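User: Could you check the structure of this?
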Amino acid sequence: MSDTNTKAVANGDAEAGEVVELLQQLIRNACVNDGSEASGGEIRSAEVLRNYLEGSGLDVQIFESAPGRASVVTRIEGSDPAAPTLLLMGHTDVVPVNPDHWREDPFGGELIDGEVWGRGAVDMLNLTASMAVATKRLARSGFRPRGTLIYLGVADEEALGAYGAEYLLARERDAVAADYVITESGGIPLPSPNGIKLPVIVGEKGSYWCRIVVHGIAGHGSQPFRTDNALVKAAEVVRRIAAFEPQTQIHEVWRTFIESMGYPDEFTGPLLSSETFRDALEVLPDGMARQFHACTHTTFAPTVVRGGSKINTIPDQVELEVDVRTLPGQTAEDVEALLSEAIGDLASFVDIHCIKADESTASPIDTPLWDTLSRVTQHWYPGSKTVPYLTVGATDARFFRRHDSVAYGFGLFSQHLSFEDYGTMFHGDNERVDVESLRLSTELWEAVARDLLA
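Assistant: Sure, the predicted C-alpha cells are below.
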C-alpha cells in the first residue's frame, strides 16, 4: 500500500484507504478518450477492476468492443427473478488535459491534504472506484439479495458511448440490462433555508453536434480587397452564434428543482420567469450561473475551426464545429431552425451537417429507487431532501432510459466539495475529490443495494 493510503488508514478509515488506492490506479491508467477509436485504452482499467473484484469470489467479464476499448461487468445474482435489478455504472475513460494548467500532475493520482488529485477525480472515476469497492464489500459480506446487483465499469462515455454502453445494450444486453441504473453525477449537498438538498440527476439535455461549412471564393492573399474570404465570413458566423440567445425555457424539471429548494420568493421568482431569468444570473457565482443558464436554454458553443491551405491563399471554405445542447422536447429540426435564425443573412453561404444527434431523456421520480435514495441518505444528512435536477451534459443513462430503465445520476459528497467547485472541475483544471466524499459514496452504494434489493 502506498504512503498516501497508509496515511488514510492510519487516520482510522480503512474503507477510504481502499477506495483511494483504487481511484489512484484508475487515474494513473490515463484512459484518455479524444473521440477516436484508437484512444481510450480502457482495457487497462478493466483489467485493474477485474483483478480487484475477482478476489471476492465474483465472476467478472470483460467485453471488448474494439481493440483496447473494454468494459468490465460483474454481478451478485438475486434469488427472485421477479425482484428488481440495480446497475451501478461508472465509466473508466477521461477527457484530454493540458498539464501546463494544473498545479499537480493530472495523472499522478496524488493524495494531498485529504484530496485525490487527477483527471477523472470527479468525472467520474471517484464513483467508478467507490461502486467497485461497495460491490466487493457486499460480496465478501455474503450479501444474498432478492434482486440482482450489477456493477459496470464502462468504456467510451466521454465520446458518446459507441464503444461502451451503446455497444453493450446492442450486443450484450443480458449482461447489463437492469430495472434501475445509477451513474453520474448528483449528490452535491446544497444548503437551503430549510436544510440540505441533494440533487438527483433525473434527466439530461440532448446533443446536436454539427459541422457548419462556410463557402467563399479563393483568391491571392496579396489582394484581399473585395474578396469573398470564407475565413472572414466564418468569423462572423462564429460571432453571431456566440451572441445568439434563445428564449429561456422554464421546463418541469427546472421548476420542480427551484420550488423544492425552499429559497425566498425574491430569489425563486426571477428564476422561474423567462422575463427576469437573465438578470437573476448576474448575482450568482460563475459555476452556478453557467449551470442554471444551461439548464434552461438551448446552448451553442463553437469549439473547432478548420480552414485555409496556405498563407498567401484566400480560403474558399472553412469548417466550424458547434456543440449544441438541447432541452426536453426539442428535435433536430428545432435546432436547425435556431441555427438559421442565429446565422441570419449568411445562411445562404453555409451548409449545416449533423455529426451526432441525441434527444433529451428523463426518468420519473415516483419510483422505488427515488424512495430508496431519499430514505438512506438520511443516515448521513438527517433532514435532507432529494430534489430532481437536469444535467446539462450527456451521460450513459440515456441509453438505458431508451431501454425502459429508470436511470438517475447520484453519489454522496461531503460539504467540503461545493456545487461551484464541482461544476468548474468537470472537464476543467485541478480536478480533485476529498477522501470523505469517497467514503460517503462507498457507504451509500452498500445502503442502496441493501434497501432496494434485499
